[in-house]
Design goal:
alpha+beta; 8-stranded antiparallel sheet; 12 helices; 37% helix; 31% strand; disordered N terminus
Length: 516
């Protein structure tokens, strides 16, 4: 009986040792890849790889930017940023004692608003004769929290709405330019790609496995081979260096030929590693062979199917690009002779032609929805051109109006003042853009170049381009600031200039002082 038991123990130990030796845990070992991502709509003749665009921020890899007559032409049309309904939310805060009794109740107010922008990109391809376009949209929600009173929350938003709007306009437009570059480079560009983490081999990590040492050596050798890969250099020498390891993995797959899970796992790693070598050396037909072996091996079929798709996509890219490799020199250059300038989107002159939805408050307090051209608004004075539902221009007089509110957040008020730049020099109602609106003072911009101050205790505004302001700015401004000696002192110390920035700083300081 003891002999029988001892024999069973020996057999079990030998069996366990064999199983342990054959167990193969696999680790991912990442390696460098570098190649040219081929376009889906290629310009096969490299002498025709030129483009023009409406924005200096649009670029196309593998192409030359030219001043005119580019094979590809990209027109980026930004449609502006619209402001959603502004909501001021009241929040209740309660301080409680240990028993839960309310000791104190306070309230804060949050400003909530949404911003949305859109753009259209038009593409002309003279090589194929095709024209196409796509639309881009961006949305954001804005919140300013913790204001102590409703009026302070409202005043904060009113006094900062232009800078907030411009912040989101810039953000949205930058995002849309980036999206445009991604889309056009995917379609037409020859994009160099280098990565150290995109591709991996499956390497045996179980130290007691018979192939552990060889797998580790294969991993280090192959990573060293692929570290030399460059997108603009041929890969023939790399293929030669990798061949011994391809032979090794083939040999392993032949030796581990049993129909159990651990043998299948080793074969899977062998086939997978060979397929990855071939895929990154631009040999898709060989990839398909080993992808099919992975499927037949029945350890991880989905990887075999995925590698087959990768191979088919690469074959398709080679076919439409009339090429057999992803490793070649890419020339990207600027031949347009246009100066590189920094573009500040909020002040981009192209935006002056934008159309915006607007609400006109008439003198009789009716509210009419209409459409206006931003360029027309900047020129508005005694009248303005607006578009009706048929897109037909209609003139609206300032005398018949009170206010125009745009969905972009801009507000144009009708105020009485004598202009120094308008053809009508009389003290008559005129449209002017609100720059700052406070309890004691408001600042307006008229015709894009004249600034007007209007104090709450007067019926008419005063132009800062009048003779008194031009030849005695400090004296005139101080005379209007009698309610606040502190601000008068700053005026006489030349702290404010007769500019948009200077007048805005003055208006904010005067309003804060006079409201105390």
């Amino acid at each position: 009986m003891k002999k029988t038991l001892s024999l069973l123990v020996i057999i079990c130990c030998l069996t366990a040792t064999k199983i342990l030796a054959q167990r193969a845990n696999l680790d991912r070992e990442y390696f460098k890849t570098s190649y040219v991502d081929l376009p889906k709509i290629p310009i096969v003749d490299d002498s025709k790889r030129t483009f023009t665009s409406s924005s200096r921020n649009i670029f196309l890899e593998g192409f030359s930017r030219v001043a005119k007559n580019g094979t590809l032409d990209f027109r980026f049309n930004f449609h502006g940023t619209e402001i959603g309904e502004v909501d001021i939310k009241k929040n209740k805060h309660e301080d409680k004692d240990k028993e839960g009794n309310v000791l104190k109740t306070t309230y804060t107010y949050d400003v909530i608003c949404s911003y949305s922008s859109s753009a259209t990109v038009s593409i002309s391809n003279s090589d194929s004769g095709e024209n196409s376009s796509f639309t881009l949209t961006e949305d954001d929600n804005y919140a300013s929290t913790g204001h102590k009173t409703y009026s302070k929350a409202s005043a904060f938003y009113n006094n900062n709405r232009y800078s907030i709007r411009d912040k989101y306009r810039n953000k949205h437009r930058n995002s849309m330019i980036n999206q445009t570059n991604s889309k056009i480079n995917y379609r037409y560009g020859y994009v160099p790609v280098t990565s150290n983490q995109a591709q991996h081999f499956w390497i045996i990590a179980t130290k007691k496995h018979p192939e552990f040492a060889n797998h580790q050596e294969a991993s280090e050798s192959l990573k060293a081979i692929f570290s030399k890969m460059q997108y603009d250099l041929p890969v023939d020498e790399l293929y030669t260096e990798a061949q011994p390891w391809i032979d090794y993995f083939n040999d392993v797959a032949t030796r581990y030929n049993e129909d159990d899970k651990q043998h299948k796992k080793v074969r899977y790693a062998s086939y997978y590693n060979i397929a990855k070598i071939y895929l990154n050396l631009d040999l898709p037909e060989k990839v398909k062979k080993y992808a099919d072996l992975i499927i037949t091996n029945d350890y991880d079929k989905k990887d075999g199917k995925r590698l087959n798709r990768n191979a088919e996509e690469l074959i398709k890219d080679f076919t439409i690009n009339e090429i057999s490799t992803r490793h070649f020199e890419v020339v990207t250059e600027d031949l347009s002779n246009e100066p590189d300038v920094e573009i500040v989107y909020a002040d981009d002159p192209a935006e002056e032609s934008e159309k915006a939805v607007a609400f006109l408050i008439t003198a009789t307090n009716d509210t009419l929805q209409t459409t206006v051209a931003v360029e027309e608004l900047t020129k508005a004075s005694a009248a303005i051109q607006m578009l009706d539902e048929n897109n037909t221009a209609k003139e609206v007089a300032a005398t018949d109006s009170k206010q125009i509110v745009l969905t972009t957040g801009d507000i144009y008020e009708v105020i009485n003042f004598t202009s120094s730049v308008a053809s009508d020099k009389t003290n008559a109602p005129k449209f002017a853009k609100a720059i700052y609106q406070g309890d004691k003072i408001s600042l307006y911009e008229h015709m894009g170049k004249e600034y007007v101050l209007k104090y709450s205790n007067t019926e008419k505004g005063v132009s800062t381009m009048s003779k008194d302001f031009v030849f005695g700015f400090n004296k005139k401004l101080a005379a209007l600031s009698t309610e606040c000696e502190a601000v008068k002192a700053k005026i006489m110390a030349n702290e404010y200039k007769n500019s948009k920035e200077g007048l805005l700083a003055y208006s904010q300081a005067y309003d804060a002082c006079a409201s105390e």
